[in-house]
């Protein structure tokens, strides 16, 4: 298990990287929403944005980005909102998640999960 | 990858470019019961750790007495990853079972396929609160007893002690062993599949 630098994180820095915002529209991203870069970092871009764009050349889940950046999930979601709004990333949202109404995913999806796990 | 390795993520196993569907399973249990060990056994990446924070604005009204003493709370959790096929990627989260982490679970449980409650028979009481919350959220789960040592009780005794209905699987495992931990995930997936087919059947007859 890898311990990030979060324990010693300076709250002022988290305030700065998010531009002082404390809330993202959390419904936009799940922890396992997969993020993909749609452009290369450009000059003058905020360093956290640059890091995210480099990390997400291949799909990467929000929670992995959080771990690699050493920032809480909620802070990462705010950073991702900026990038999504400007079209720098796309987000692949979970399809197979359990719906909010408490139901289950389609049996076909769960069958695929079962078979894949059996074949590991 | 070329020689510039300043992006730490570049040196870690990246997902397939076609990966498009993240799934979640939560492993919940008391301190030291083997959650991280289980995640590590089956994960294709070295388990990672990160944090989620809760500020007072996001609290709601569930537990005001707790919040008054602290306006921001941070909880660390571990996770691992299994690529299931070209599209589906399963994320396994290890979540602490103590009552004070309820807000983390509420976030993790949203959209979670199901949960594994990892128990130690010497400390079954550690899992009561977790089971209560799972039932409250309607999150399907199975119970896996982690046997670091020779078990003192039968699985039926565990079921009785936890007051579990007969349709919830209770199984033995060794979280250190990949095949055993895999078998736990397979048991959960089978349970979920069987629940989904029986609820689909109910809908068609309704």
UniProtKB/TrEMBL annotation, chain A:
**Superkingdom as given in the UniProt entry:** Bacteria
Return any one Pfam family short name. Answer: DUF742
Q: What is this protein called?
A: DUF742 domain-containing protein
Q: Write down the species.
A: Streptomyces himastatinicus ATCC 53653
TrEMBL record, chain B:
Q: Which Pfam families match?
A: ATP_bind_1
Q: Taxonomically, which superkingdom?
A: Bacteria
GO MF terms listed in the record are: GTP binding; hydrolase activity
Q: Which UniProt keywords apply?
A: GTP-binding, Hydrolase, Nucleotide-binding
The record's comment on protein family reads: Belongs to the GPN-loop GTPase family.
Q: What protein is this chain from? A: Putative ATP/GTP-binding protein
Tell me which species this is from. Answer: Streptomyces himastatinicus ATCC 53653
What high-level taxonomic lineage is stated for the organism?
A: Bacteria, Bacillati, Actinomycetota, Actinomycetes, Kitasatosporales
């Amino acid at each position: 298990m890898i311990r990030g630098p979060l324990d010693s994180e300076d709250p002022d820095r988290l305030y700065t990287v998010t531009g002082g915002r404390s809330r993202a529209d959390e419904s936009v991203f799940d922890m396992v929403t997969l993020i993909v870069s749609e452009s290369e970092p450009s000059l003058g871009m905020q360093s956290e944005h640059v890091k995210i764009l480099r990390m997400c050349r291949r799909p990467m889940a929000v929670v992995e980005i959080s771990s690699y950046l050493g920032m809480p999930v909620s802070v990462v979601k705010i950073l991702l909102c900026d990038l999504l709004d400007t079209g720098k990333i796309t987000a692949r949202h979970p399809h197979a998640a359990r719906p909010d109404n408490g139901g289950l995913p389609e049996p076909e999806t769960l069958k695929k999960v079962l078979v894949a796990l059996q074949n590991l | 990858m070329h020689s510039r390795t300043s992006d730490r993520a570049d040196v870690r196993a990246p997902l397939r470019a076609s990966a498009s569907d993240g799934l979640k399973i939560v492993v919940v249990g008391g301190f030291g019961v083997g959650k991280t060990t289980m995640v590590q056994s089956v994960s294709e990446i070295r388990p990672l750790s990160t944090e989620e924070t809760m500020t007072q604005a996001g609290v709601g009204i569930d537990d005001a007495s707790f919040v008054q003493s602290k306006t921001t709370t941070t909880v660390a959790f571990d996770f691992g990853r299994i690529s299931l096929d070209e599209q589906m990627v399963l994320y396994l989260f290890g979540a602490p079972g103590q009552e004070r982490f309820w807000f983390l679970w509420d976030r993790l449980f949203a959209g979670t396929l199901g949960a594994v409650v990892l128990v130690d028979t010497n400390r079954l009481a550690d899992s009561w609160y977790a089971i209560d919350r799972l039932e409250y959220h309607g999150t399907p789960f199975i119970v896996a007893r982690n046997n670091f040592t020779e078990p003192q009780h039968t699985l039926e005794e565990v079921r009785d002690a936890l007051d579990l209905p007969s349709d919830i699987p209770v199984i033995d495992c060794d979280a250190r062993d990949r095949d055993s931990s895999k078998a736990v995930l397979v048991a959960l997936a089978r349970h979920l599949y069987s629940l989904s087919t029986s609820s689909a059947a109910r809908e068609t007859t309704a």
